[in-house]
Fold these 2 entries.
Entry 1:
Amino acid sequence: MALERSDVEKIAHLARLGLGESEIPQTTETLNNILGLIDAMQAVNTDGIEPLAHPLETTQRLRADVVTEENHRDEYQAIAPAVENGLYLVPKVIE
Amino acid sequence: MHQLTLAEIARALAAKQFSAEELSRELLGRIRQLDPQLNSFITVTEEQALEQARAADARRASGENGALLGAPIAHKDLFCTRGVLTSCASKILTGFKAPYDATVVEKLAAAGTVTLGKLNMDEFAMGSANESSHYGPVKNPWDTSRVPGGSSGGSAAAVAARLIPAATGTDTGGSIRQPAALTNLTGLKPTYGRVSRWGMIAYASSLDQGGPIARTAEDCALLLGAMAGFDPKDSTSVDQPVDDYLAALNQPLTGLRIGLPKEYFGNGLDSRIAERVLAVVEELKKLGASVKDISLPNMKHAIPAYYVIAPAEASSNLSRFDGVRFGYRCENPQNLEDLYKRSRGEGFGAEVKRRIMVGTYALSAGYYDAYYLKAQKIRRLIKNDFLAAFGEVDLILGPTTPNPAWKLGEKANDPVSAYLEDIYTITANLAGIPGLSMPAGFVDGLPVGVQLLAPYFQEGRLLNVAHQYQQVSDWHTRTPTGF
């Protein structure tokens, strides 16, 4: 199934990626080429095969439920684009 | 001085032939003089390097003598380094100075290495040519009109040009082994979980693994010994003792069973590369190895599966780059959605956007089973192929790449043709097994690599075989003209 312009616009929205009007035709073509490559997968018989999520098939390690991290707010905010009084600034969300 | 390997540097420093500071000054001078031809460094940390070198000299004067004490290296620019730009070669990480060191950086610093800077790469490690970097492409020192491979292209170019004796890299689908092959170096991708991923900016978390790029297997053994080990800060780090890789180097190869997968020698492989690879096999036979033809029947499905799994994981990992907490933010955002969309749209390059979109599509409602789940099933088939093969042989050998280094720009507008170059390397990432590429000669003056694959946690075996081959060959000692 080939992607159309509207599919690409929808995917870009889901990924919160701003795509310029001029980028859309080329992006659509390239994504269709990549999906063409990927679709070869559908011909493989995987009946009864369990999916492999982790190469060593281990599960998440657990640790004791104790605080191990210190507060790094000032360090982390020192590299943020816009902060004020310890808060990250973004455009107004609620009118 | 710049021609010395890490092992030779260790001996020279111990014998007081020169100091770590003198060595670093020499290499920093070479970087200034020669790197404009290659563009292998994004950041050179001269002052910090000289401080570290003096500290290493002081530690040595007080009686320490670690093999990496005073050894100059550089890190791929996706390992976080405290207070120094970590860019992932992306505009979106403009000005990002990590507040901490990656575990790999910390471990190597503790061993006394001197960091000369941060190395260029494909943006977010997505690429096989190092052409997707926001900081411009890296050139191959063997022919500066050609690509060095990727994504650890800066690491490979800098080591090949003798600007540094060794570097760190990362390998998600071949990003250590392929550039090593295209620049006449030895590069090792360890078993998934062997080297901590903490502070290593994530691309595809179930595939990513850090490792060394150097000129010899011995140097890779030295570095891996310092990089590997359990790290509670990485939830996928494996709690298992680290082998003595240096001790493993000198094991005889008598009785070693090598498998040659027929799928590695089929259509698409440059026949001159096949000749070079088979010549290596002949040498290994003289050293006592036996050879068997094997099959990895699902290898052909690896590229489609990889280009679902890696982009899917990337689309999730890269959602953290939002223009709010660090890095690039667009000018005058109208609202929050505009802030996200324009910061990301302007901050990411074309290849990264493509992969985020492929991944977003593959994970979107209604497509999960057809793409991600299907790819994970194929992933198991690929792992099963390896498990079956390692029941018959100790090691698998084949070419690292189907072709030597291509011309800059040649595949830049055709991502699918570049993806196909990963055919021999991505199966090791999907299965999580270790793989090594080492020099196997030249085709038209361009380096060719041979790849060795081993069962889980047998990095020592890979280094052993590569080291033994390097005792009876001299490809790895060749230096590109002009460097």
Entry 2:
Amino acid sequence: MAATDTSTPVTRPQRWDQPFGPEVTEADVARLLARPEIAAIRADRFPARLPLHEILRNDARIVRFQPGDLIVREGDYGNSAFLILSGKVRVVLPPGLPREILGRHEVRRKGWWRSLAQLWKNRSVPEVRAASDSTEFFRKSEGSSEQRVFLQDVPAILDRNKTAVLESGALFGELAALGRVPRTATMFAESESELLEIRWQGLREIRRFDDGWRRMIDERYRTNALRAHLLATPLFAGLDESALSQLTEHTLFETYGAFDWHVSYQQLQGAEAVAHEPIIAAQGDHPDGLLLVRAGFARVSVKLGHGRRTLTYLGAGDQFGLEELYDAWRAGQPRSLETTLSAVGYVDVLRVPTDALEKLVFGKLSAPPRRLAAAAARPLAQDALLEWLVDERFINGTQAMLIDLDRCTRCDDCVRACASTHEGNPRFIRHGKTFDHWMVTNACMHCADPVCMIGCPTGAIHRSEQGGTVVINDNTCIGCSTCANSCPYENIVMVGIRDTGGRALVDPRDQKPILKATKCDLCSGQLGGPACVRACPHDALQRVDFRDLAVFGNK
Amino acid sequence: MKTARQRFTFLPAVLLGTFVAFLVPWLWSRQNSLQLGDPALVTGWWLFAVMLFLGAFNARKKLSMLPLGNASTWLMIHVAAGLLTLALFWLHTGSLWPTGLYERVLAALFYTLGFSGIVGWIMQRVYPRQLSDTGVEVIYERIPSEIAELREKAEALVLNCTKETGSETLARHYLETLHWFFCKPRFFANHALSGGKKARAWYRQQCDAVRLYLNEAERSFLDRLTLLAERKAEVDFHFAAQTLMKRWLLLHVPLTAAVMLLVVWHIVLVHIYAL
């Protein structure tokens, strides 16, 4: 009997099916390999499945900038580093460029009259924009259809701001790309420049297999960020200058998980997702150092039955393994880890070696509290909520919209309030994932790790200066949908815009509608904070930070 | 989420304010009566002012762009002020049921308005918890498409059963009974009043009635059909509860307008003819 054919054969997707830039030719690769910075890389150290040649071809692209073109903006989240091939690049030193020059906008709070005027100024059709709002900030990049924000008067900017020059051969942006932290400075092209942009995957491989690049990147990290991070860690607060220097010298930094974790998040859920999480440190292993989470989230779990029980999760600034290391030092014999640490998404960790801790830290430390033992003693049912929050990655939210369904009358007053303060179109959907009587709605959570901000070509989506709210500058949004596609929680909606007459705005070249990304902005321009919260007559809706689980305890 | 203590921070102040808002006109009207004055004039105007304030809650909802305080605080004051108007109404009329025809019409509308407010308030306290207990969450406007989807699944299941087992028993039974159930929201009153016990009993009975005549393979289809019916009953409950929670305002708000209109005319008449 013939077996029922229920499958469709397709070629298994491969890592380089989607190259970073399609324009890297064989000649380009040959030219790159001849450059001293790349020629110094030991290509023979790379495994056959990941040759340097292919990394350059698929994980890098050559980008040309005209004078004044912004390359990276301070505060942006980027997933790539840049090597200057030719030309001059300026780095703007503190205090940096005014935000409006960078194509961002200052959210000005409306006064009473302007707030009230929304009653009659809101159009009968939603999403009305003036047709000419968006053009002044952009120009097309050379040789591609990509639009860039550019600085209009470079000499004046050089006069008014402190800057430094980077020339051919300089590498920048690698720490933001590998550490998933915001860019610390704005860079722009001073002259016509050619840069090699390497996405984080390629950079990670080069750092992994080439000692020279690893030393260079690690050294820059040690100089620029590590010391500050260790200083900010309470555990090392009492250390003197020399001890801190020794610690800085010995600390390793590592990354786990995928930068674009939203893809796996959307594909895998529940126990399957847990099984796929990269293990940072496994239960039963001997710890070789204290792990400090620098960015991202990690799950702390123990084996239970045929699965793993989540005890807690760690975010930036948290540490793992201290109890075991301290006990081992006190007892004078090794101790294995009681829990497993795994990467929830992308995690950037620092590993402080055991011998450095024993020599420099433990002598001044009192016994750390046994938090995890207490967590393991909790009834299973009590942890179901935590398990759900971590599985769904809601722990990322700092201003998530949480609805208590036991109080919500489904009256939609929150939705109407949102629409009335946002040009007639609500910026959230009163629907979402539920647990027990809690619902996390499809409203922007203003994430601690904002995946949506990675890859925005114009920096339109950014954190506001006031409170770090993630907002979109409508004027510089080009409607590319990168942010909407990246948001793991589907909280960004692309909308077609209209002119003041209510007619849909279309691109005259292809007649396709002009789109803009829209999402909750926490009513940043409105009086009195989020209108949705104030509009709920039953106190059923709150904006919450899930780091504080007490929000669920109160009824 | 706000704790009960946080939610009721203003409650003592609201209760005290309500008590004072009644006590002052009551004491004044007693004093005025002793002086052979006409206390109804002042209690009437005071009652009218409180009613205007009650109506302002609706305006607050429309002005969500202004920082006019949390709607939850407004609702608390609205409920307290609503109860106050009942007391003020009795103080003003001096009886539970006035004598003139116009006043009786006004009183009837006023009582209906108060009753609708109390019923609405109770529904808003009772239904949400029952809805979340269903484990199903569906937006009101999407209920028709949700039901259509369930119906399509049920019909596909029944067709598959016929195709795979060669028996039409389940399909025939579906057309005779369950098809009616899957067509649109059913058992509205039962869902509204007793949480849909009758609806559940009904579909279980329909499923049990045919089980006797099915073989093992058909029964597995029936089990899946029962699960779909279960889900349909939950959606029906959402429909009933959400409809009532949305629609009671369609009674409350027009009644408010009607009462206010009659009150204004009442004031005009009083000032023209009675003074």
